[in-house]
Amino acid sequence: MKEIRAIVRPNRLDRLREALRAIPNFPGVTIFKAEGFTAPAAVDKRTVKDELTDFTGKLMVCVLASDEMVDPIRNAIMEACSTGAIGDGLVWTVDIGDIHRIRDRAQL
């Protein structure tokens, strides 16, 4: 079992939702509001004001999925959320140990 996480632009959420729903047996998604900034060396900002106010709103996407679903989900995220510009975000995968559904305590 894996967790696929991504930081994406909020204005790409509708495209992302459609792309994820199109994946057969898609397990579901959780979205968090997030803020952050790009690595300073990647951006041409030089003033102190710019350095202190460059946080931009982002979304964190979290999906728990079986190992075989990782590639389709990751590819859907990258396709739906790419604009080709700095700040498009990141996607990564984390191994998950045990998962239990709270409602009936079933191990997934």
Tell me what portion of residues adopts beta-strand conformation.
Answer: 25-35%
User: Structural class of the helix and strand makeup?
Assistant: alpha+beta
CATH architecture: 2-Layer Sandwich
User: What summary fits the major beta sheet?
Assistant: 4 strands, antiparallel
Strand order, sheet with most strands: 2-3-1-4
Instruction: Sum up the overall morphology in one term.
Output: elongated
User: How many structural domains in the coordinates?
Assistant: 1
How does this model look, in words?
InterPro entries: N-reg_PII, N-reg_PII-like_a/b, N-reg_PII/ATP_PRibTrfase_C. Pfam families: P-II. One of its GO terms (cellular component) is cytosol. The chain has one domain: Alpha-Beta Plaits, CATH 3.30.70. A 4-stranded antiparallel β-sheet has the order 2-3-1-4, covered by helices on one side. It contains 3 helices and 4 strands; from the N terminus they run E-H-E-H-E-H-E. 24% of the residues lie in helices and 29% in strands.
